[in-house]
Amino acid sequence: MARQQRLRRWCSVALLVLGVAWLALANIYPAARAQSSYVAVATIDGPIDIVATRYLERVLEEAWDTDAALLVVRLNTPGGLADSTRDIVGLLLESRVPVAVYVSPAGSQAASAGTFVAAAAHFAVMAPGTNIGAASPVTASGEDVPATLADKVSEDTQAFIRSIAERRGRDAAALEATVTQAKSYSAGEAEDAGIIDFIADDLDALLRQVDGAEVETARGPQQVNVAGLEVRELDPTGVERFLSVLANPALALVLLFIGGFGLLVEFSAPGLGVPGIVGVVALALAFTGLGQLPVNWLGVVLILGALGLAALEVQAVGFGLFGASAVAAFIAGAFLLVGDAFRVPEIDIPEIEIGVNPWLIGVLGGVFAAALAVIAWALRSDRRRAGSSYVSPTSEAALVGQLAEVTRTLNPRGEVRLAGERWEAELPPGGRARVGERVMVRDVEGLRLRVDIVQESASEAPTVTG
To answer: What is the DSSP letter of 261?
Structure first.
């Protein structure tokens, strides 16, 4: 019966995960709708990463499917990942819909990778009080890293920015200076240097200036006629917002930690259910978040290996070699989880640095060690109590015929749980019972139970095989 309940519980979790996945796909890829022409507006406010790339790709497709006359992308970014930047530039250069990248509102920036994105649009526009150009790399939390990487930009990147300038008719020398000399421009300076097309105080001013202009799109020359058209925001979907929250290396590490320990607790005390369900859900969320990040899979393997070593430590019951190795593997995996830790890469587009705060790694490592020690101590104490308890003849008689659950494989000796306590148990020679199976007590010899395997069926009472 207990096994059937656990099976139903895990089936429910699987159905829940499948339902969430179906809703996610339905939300990310909404059905195209026939619409009258309009001006679409999207917003990228944050790093240029995988989430931003997927959002812009979806918005471009929706704008095309719904007959948008122009897509305006409000941009405010400190930079981003090199691969994501190249992907977004490719999307803009091959867009079938005219695109205006608008660095706004006042105080916004198109720094580092943002420069490439703005330059690749059909119209590059800035609001007063904004800036565009190279910037020192920053961490995911916005902190400066020790030294600027602007002077390490590769020849390939210089060719990349020149090719964008040639494609869109912008000043190649001024744009190249943003990546070779870490040069930044105010809105007025960028207009004078030929990096942007014009300055617009607001969206209405932008639309007035682009109205009637002709641009070259992926489907050929197209005139932009936006006078009098409705302006419609294409906001991120709920799933896209959720993914942007999960795309945080610190959160991914915490979820891996919670998920791993949930499964470890379930493994240590089979049948509880809740820790196992929490563990599966947390691991699913962790891997979803990692899918949005530049993951170093060696770090993931080390963390999963740490959980395996922790399981062995629980089986061995004693904080020793397995436990210490588990903690060391977890800390090493956390440092290697995302980014390029311990390696100086050949920089092309200056990237924001993504990593996990060392203080968080230290705290989680300490909690990992303490929790593992507590679990091992609790199991060791439980077994010692069971080993030192006096069992009277009367109690022995009461135990005979009781059902127990296997907690350590009987082959033929092992361990079972009976009446909330753990007992050493033994099957007849040649017998074997796996964890989670039920056995029946047929005799008590000192502090050891002699047991038989229980054969259960849905329509009959349990039967014993000796």
So the answer is: H
